[in-house]
Design a protein that fits this description.
With 309 residues, the chain is of the alpha/beta class. It contains eleven helices and 15 strands. Helix 1 packs parallel to helix 2, helix 1 packs across helix 9 and helix 10 crosses helix 11.
Length: 309
């Protein structure tokens, strides 16, 4: 099996609650709406890349339950190849998502379920697939040692490696040295470099620090301010694109990373691939949900044509 992109990550069923505010401890409030849908950073990124036209597979673990059925159906619809194993002894991951009804901003609790047991041995079972891919990407919803082992395997095979360091965590230099691209948002960058990232200047400093610690290049995503790219030679701010009113920002980072991976797998230069990811994210935030919000390749191309660099 030859895939352009292999993603290591977690699938979770998103349970999304919209309300005016989060409840205080011991308090019950009425919400505005509820939605159940597919999520998990790795899964969302795979769906985004698949919808963008890439041949992509996802390495993960699922239970044998209705949420696993949701995962497999979601991937099939987006053209994503499942590299998942299924395990009856535990459950497929789930997430609580609070969405502020006024702003669309979110707060999330993730329970990875059986995917929390992803191990280096699980990666070794997929070595032939990893060796054949152009781009390998992972995040931090599964154990760090598993992510590092997978990045090492991909690096050994000559694949372009991407680490999206989310959820935010401190990272050893050993894992950064395995990454051609590291793609934190502001809060994730802060967790890695140890200082506040609240401006373009801060983002530039953070990107420089990530490169100094071993990353090939850093892309700090800045929401409405676009992205800050640094490859150790120069910093470039890539502006955000607008595809319409923002409905929900959940999954925007995953959309960006999936689009970025798809662009790099096609051989786009870094800035062009970043713009491709930015367009993917811009379209995703105009719709509710995570995986269901990922745009098609036609939509991405149309947005880029209407916003030439």
């Amino acid at each position: 099996m030859t895939l352009d992109i292999v993603i290591l990550g977690v699938f979770v069923a998103d349970t999304a609650y919209r309300a005016e505010r989060q409840p205080k401890m011991g308090e019950t409030i009425l919400g505005k709406s509820f939605a159940l849908g597919p999520g998990g950073k790795g899964s969302n990124q795979a769906v985004a890349a698949g919808m963008a036209g890439a041949k992509v597979g996802i390495i993960t673990k699922l239970g044998q339950d209705p949420f696993a059925d949701m995962a497999l159906a979601t991937w099939s619809k987006a053209g994503v190849t499942s590299l998942a194993s299924q395990h009856p002894e535990s459950y497929t991951g789930a997430a609580y998502i609070f969405v502020d009804d006024a702003t669309g901003d979110n707060a999330i609790i993730v329970c990875p379920g059986i995917a929390a047991s992803l191990s280096p041995a699980d990666i070794d079972q997929q070595l032939n697939t990893i060796r054949g891919c152009k781009v390998f990407m992972t995040q931090l919803e599964q154990p760090l040692e598993t992510a590092e082992h997978a990045l090492q395997c991909a690096r050994n095979a000559g694949a372009t490696t991407i680490l999206n360091p989310a959820p935010a965590a401190e990272l050893p230099a050993s894992i950064l040295k395995l990454c051609d691209y590291v793609t934190p948002n502001e809060s994730e960058a802060e967790a890695v470099v140890g200082f506040s990232v609240a401006s373009i200047a801060d983002a530039t400093k953070a990107a420089e620090a990530l490169v100094d610690r071993g990353a090939g290049a850093a892309i700090v995503t800045l929401g409405e301010n676009g992205c800050l790219f640094h490859d150790g030679k120069a910093a470039v701010q890539v502006p955000a694109l607008s595809a319409g009113p923002v409905v929900e920002t959940t999954g925007a980072g995953d959309a960006f990373n999936g689009g970025l991976a798809a662009g790099l797998a096609e051989g786009m230069p870094p800035i062009e691939a970043i713009r491709f990811g930015t367009a993917t994210a811009a379209l995703s935030v105009t719709r509710p949900g995570t995986a269901p919000s990922m745009p098609s390749r036609t939509e991405i191309d149309d947005l880029l044509r209407s916003n030439p660099a």
